[in-house]
UniProtKB/TrEMBL annotation, chain A:
This is Condensation domain-containing protein. It comes from Actinoplanes regularis. GO terms for molecular function: catalytic activity. GO terms for biological process: lipid biosynthetic process. Pfam families: Condensation (PF00668). InterPro entries: CAT-like_dom_sf (IPR023213), Condensation_dom (IPR001242). Gene3D superfamilies: Chloramphenicol acetyltransferase-like domain, Nonribosomal peptide synthetase, condensation domain.
Automatic annotation (TrEMBL), chain B:
InterPro entries: ACP-like_sf, PP-bd_ACP. SUPFAM superfamilies: ACP-like. Residues 23-77 form the Carrier domain. Gene3D superfamilies: ACP-like. Coiled coil: none annotated. This is Phosphopantetheine attachment site. It comes from the Bacteria.
Length: 458, 87
């Protein structure tokens, strides 16, 4: 049987202040505000085991320390006029922690339900902090810690840093000591930097770069859509999601990267560009690439939302795989360098280009979500089998279907799994059939594996 | 800043951008070739960032790859004011 209680986290004398919102905060706030009732699907969800179980008072103290460490967890966002958004970092306040009491056996399931309850509601960013806490307890000991956060507080890279910092705090570290050892950019500081002449120059250069690529990129990528009638007859059509899980790709990508002197991320993006060009019929391809914007060490440590989209335009991507990969390296450098900007201002510029029919198709998305510190063979043994044999271990599944999303024709995520790399792909069935999706994913794998086998043979 | 001071500054920034993965001795042993010490994409991004912040020169990240191969070629790119695409 589950009972319900509530506890409170009290924040006192934490850093406080107010200033303009960062580019990242503005970008995500704009998205979730437009989504309205659908906004909770952007919320971050965590249902964490607490092993061994800890007294509730200790867990609340740990979380208080975490809040003291990262301003974004106690920040509100207030619209200001037509084009403004202010961040208000509260130095004091209270955060309720919802408690569920149950047996240890029930804890995981109760935690799951609590997570959906906490993350399933929209955040009122003007009035509440973007962070919710739930505790699943048995006899005063916490067995599961449930956290829900608005994307305005952190992106996925920030979530990883938050979890690491929480673990360190649980081990006895203080917020002050952790920040001294590894300074982390706080959103108020980031916004102040973005408001300097140098920050404004960067914003303008990034938006100029975006618009130049959009005006020179292909107007349509899918020249031979699979089922164009669907777009008219089934406006609410579901987008299939395919998941390719490949041990061979995990091994092969490292070899190809080493031989070509590029990162494995460039190999994968180059392969996807080459394969998309071959399948779509458009020699030039354009991806919106999600960029962490965490190149400097203090940015890498930040629990905040810094990720934004870069525009990646690769002309003549269909010609040759290796050439595509090598050019991906330099084009990605340029694109990544121009991934920090005021999204609202860019959206207005892009809307004008679209209106005039001058914008390239920018509905293909690429998100390499991998953490550089986490590899596929960290926890499992590297396979000894030859690449050709590993290929038979590839699995392709169709986990789900998604509702259509605005300006998305194809979205590919790269994920690290134990012993494998995963490519998760969602596509508009009006443009690409399931067979086409499979052809694209298996084609990426085959390109990289063949190139790796050639390395060994050479 | 004269050429030698600028080169020394670029070397210092390159080591810092390597985030512990490269030392001055290692670079000296390979004729200051960033490529030969396995300088990562992330390090290059940091270096380009640092040069803009601390030297005030914006480098074109899409400049031909040979401009980023060694400390000397990066220094030459900075002296040229950051131009270099297709040069």
């Amino acid at each position: 049987m589950t009972t319900i209680e509530e506890r409170t986290i009290t924040l006192d004398s934490a850093r406080a202040g107010t200033g303009p919102a960062t580019w990242g905060q503005r970008a995500i706030w704009g998205v979730v505000t437009r989504l309205g009732d659908d906004a909770p699907r952007y919320n971050l969800r965590l249902n964490l085991p607490v092993t061994p179980p800890r007294p509730a008072s200790r867990v609340l103290a740990d979380l208080t320390e975490l809040l003291r460490m990262h301003d974004s967890l106690h920040t509100r966002l207030l619209p200001e006029g037509e084009d403004g958004l202010r961040q208000v970092v509260d130095g004091t306040g209270e955060l309720p922690a919802t408690v569920r009491v149950c047996t240890p056996v029930e804890a995981e399931a109760v935690g799951e339900a609590l997570m959906e309850e906490l993350a399933g509601r929209s955040f009122d960013h003007a009035r509440e902090w973007p962070f919710r806490v739930g505790l699943v307890e048995h006899e005063g000991m916490v067995h599961r810690l449930v956290l829900a956060a608005s994307h305005t507080a952190m992106d996925l890279w920030g979530e990883g840093r938050m979890l690491r910092d929480l673990t360190l705090i649980e081990a006895g570290e203080s917020a002050e000591a952790l920040l001294r050892a590894r300074p982390a950019v706080q959103p108020l500081d980031a916004a102040a930097l973005q408001a300097t002449p140098q920050g404004r120059r960067r914003d303008e250069a990034a938006r100029r770069y975006w618009c130049e690529r959009l005006t020179s990129g292909p107007r349509r990528i899918f020249l031979n859509p699979a089922a164009p009638d669907l777009a008219v007859t089934h406006p609410g059509r579901l987008f299939p999601n395919a998941l390719l899980r490949s041990p061979a790709l995990a091994v092969a990508v490292e070899r190809v990267a080493a031989r070509l002197g590029v990162s494995d991320a460039a190999v994968l993006l180059g392969a996807a560009s080459h394969q998309l060009a071959r399948i779509s019929g458009s020699s030039d391809v354009l991806f919106q690439v999600v960029v962490s914007n965490r190149f400097q060490p203090a940015a890498a440590e930040s629990v905040s939302t810094m990720a934004q989209e870069a525009v990646f335009l690769l002309p003549m991507a269909d010609k040759d795989f290796e050439d595509a990969v090598l050019r991906t390296r330099s084009v990605a450098f340029g694109a990544f360098r121009h991934a920090g900007y005021d999204k609202w201002a860019l959206d207005r510029q892009v809307a004008r280009l679209v209106e005039r029919g001058e914008a390239a198709d920018h509905s293909c998305w690429w998100n390499d979500t991998r953490d550089p510190g986490v590899g596929p063979f960290d926890t499992v043994e590297r396979p000894r089998a030859a690449l050709g044999e590993l290929l038979v271990r590839t699995e392709l599944s169709w986990p789900t279907d998604f509702l259509p999303r605005a300006n998305v024709s194809v979205a590919i995520d790269v994920l690290t799994a134990p012993g494998a790399l995963e490519l998760s792909m969602t596509a508009d069935p009006a443009l690409l059939s399931r067979e086409g999706m499979e052809q694209l994913l298996r084609g990426v794998e085959r390109l990289v594996v063949d190139a790796a086998m050639a390395v060994k043979d050479a | 800043m004269d050429y030698n001071s600028l080169r020394a500054k670029i070397l210092e920034l390159a080591i810092a951008a390597g985030d512990g993965s490269v030392s001055a001795d290692e670079l000296a042993s390979v004729n200051y070739s960033l490529r030969n010490v396995g300088y990562s994409s992330l390090s290059y991004m940091r270096l380009i960032d640092s040069i803009e912040n601390e030297v005030g020169v914006y480098l074109d990240p899409e400049a031909d790859i040979e401009h980023y191969e060694t400390i000397d070629s990066v220094t030459a790119l900075v002296v040229a004011g950051g131009a270099g695409t297709g040069a």
